[in-house]
Amino acid sequence: MFLVRLLKLPVGSLYRHVALLRIIAYRNNCNVTSGPIYEMIQSCKKYCLFNIILQTVDSGVMPTKSEWHRTISSAIVHRQKTIFNISRLMYKKLSIFNQIVNSMTPSVWWLLAWLVPKRSNVCKLMMKLCVGEDKLNGNARVYKKGVCF
Q1: What pLDDT is recorded for position 142?
Q2: Which candidate in 13, 44, 52, 94 could, as Cys together with 9 as Cys, close a disulfide (CB 3.0–4.6 Å)?
Q3: pLDDT, tens digit, for every residue of 22-48?
């Protein structure tokens, strides 16, 4: 993130000094509600990274670029998994899907559709059946003698 890059600038840098002042003002509940540093802080709070930023400001020890990249990546994956799990539990229609799928990896059917595009219609039908959105006899006409395709 750009905020960590600002904090990793040399000690005498004006940009680092301004970033530190805005972070400290935000921490002390001063009237900091606009500006690019405020937007960066909001992004950090969205992914639960603001406490790590405050710890680095307090200690003065900055993580390396690769450590920070891993921290950000894991925070984003954790948030996306949480959103995925909450949203799939909110819909009654996804009860069959919830029994089949327990992780955020792509379904085998979508992978097959990606590998063999000619079979995408079949894969789409299978996914509709998994999530309970389609009926097997959706195109059937009912006659007096029974169902006719």
Answers
A1: 46
A2: 13
A3: 888 888 777 767 778 788 888 888 888
Taking alpha carbons only, the member of 11, 23, 25, 32 closest to residue 52 is 23
Amino acid identity of residue 137, one-letter, is: N
Distance CA 42, CA 50 (A): 8
Provide CB contacts within 8 A for 81, sequence distance 6+. 104
Residues sharing a CB contact under 8 Å with residue 71, sequence separation 6 or more, in sequence order:
49, 52, 63
Q: How far apart are CA 72 and CA 65, in angstroms?
A: 11
Q: Considering only CA atoms, which of 103, 7, 108 is closest in space to residue 52?
A: 7
Its sign, for the CA torsion 18, 73, 29, 56, is: negative
Query: How far is Cα 133 from Cα 53, in angstroms, rounded to an integer?
Result: 45
Measured CA angle at 143 (ends 131, 121), to 5 deg: 30
What are 100-144's pLDDT values in tens digits? 766 667 778 888 888 888 888 888 888 777 766 656 555 555 444
Q: Give the predicted TM-score (pTM) of the model.
A: 0.59
